Amino acid sequence: MEETVTPKKKVMLSGIQPSGELHLGNYLGAIKNWAARADEFECYYFMADLHTITVRQNPADLRRRTLEQLAQYIACGLDPQKNTLFIQSHVPEHAQLGWVLNCYTMFGELSRMTQFKDKSAKHQENINGGLFTYPALMAADILLYQPDYVPVGEDQKQHCELTRDVAIRFNNIYGDVFKVPEPYIQKVGARIMSLGNPTSKMSKSDPAGCVFLLEDENSIMKKFKRAITDSDTENCVRYAPDEKPGVSNLMGIYAAVTGKSYDEIEKEFAGCGYGVFKPAVGEAVCSALRPIREEASKILADKTYLKNVYTDGAERAAYIAHKTLRKVYKKVGFVER
Length: 337
Ligand code: TYM
Description:
Layout: E1 10-16, H1 24-35, E2 41-47, H2 49-52, H3 59-75, E3 83-87, H4 93-102, H5 107-111, H6 114-122, H7 129-143, E4 149-151, H8 157-174, E5 182-184, H9 217-225, H10 245-258, H11 262-268, H12 274-301, H13 303-332
Parallel strand pairs: 1-2, 2-3, 4-5
Bound molecules: ligand 1.
């Protein structure tokens, strides 16, 4: 009888910092694309808590948000049976490989990182070493699991490219230790902009322009009704990111939550002004977030379930992470314990 061999699934990995409440940018740029991949890929998703302390955090808030984030991952459709969900600090190999990769990441490379430049401008009182070497830890997060793809929003592309450079540099010295992963960036939703300022990305540091996953619907509708649209005289829904960044951002959000193309959206709102379009986008977002909010609050109430999920996740993650770290330690010349 002929033996059938199931081909090994490709691996996907990504993480989000629990440094603030999850928002629409995190959802459309990242999580939404993760949930659909569980059958096709072997998937690892984590709460990047080690990264958050590069900026000062309130400890109680950090703990609460980490668990809320896990509940929201599950509510967004990440089934813990099919995806390995874990908390970064529960797998010490991240910090261990992070140190090693610090020694293979160049000062000049780290100095060029946009996120470092932005964050050090915002937190001038606390430009610490961790903020600077953050991308080496991120490279460790990724390379430990030998993933094929890293699904992220556009803003993380530069860090993913640095990860590839570090992996290639290490492999050139020691042989094929790391798989060199590809960033996996969707066309629609990869860069959601602030509703208050469509030329800067949606981020928790600008709450007026940011829609949070667990936000109350009245507040979401207010933010969409107040969204900055363009000061052209045209008052028509047309996709033109350079000319009409405000309307194009709203079209991007509408396309991402409804699955409609820009052509379909232009036809749907032909002859309607921004006054009709803006609340329609708000309604569509509310409908998409409603089941997530309801499900997340149910999951969050069951602390035992959440604990089982992250304990089991850490165990599964550590198994793979440990294998890679052992190989790295051996290659660089550390004596085995
Ligand atoms: P973070 O926590 O800032 O963001 C998490 C994810 O959300 C995406 N994102 C957006 N996408 C579209 N539009 C936006 N306005 C928007 N804002 C955020 C981000 O691109 C990201 O995918 N360094 C990472 C966390 C991290 C990580 C990793 C990611 C740590 N280790 C390993 C992947 C693999 C970060 O700060 O993302």
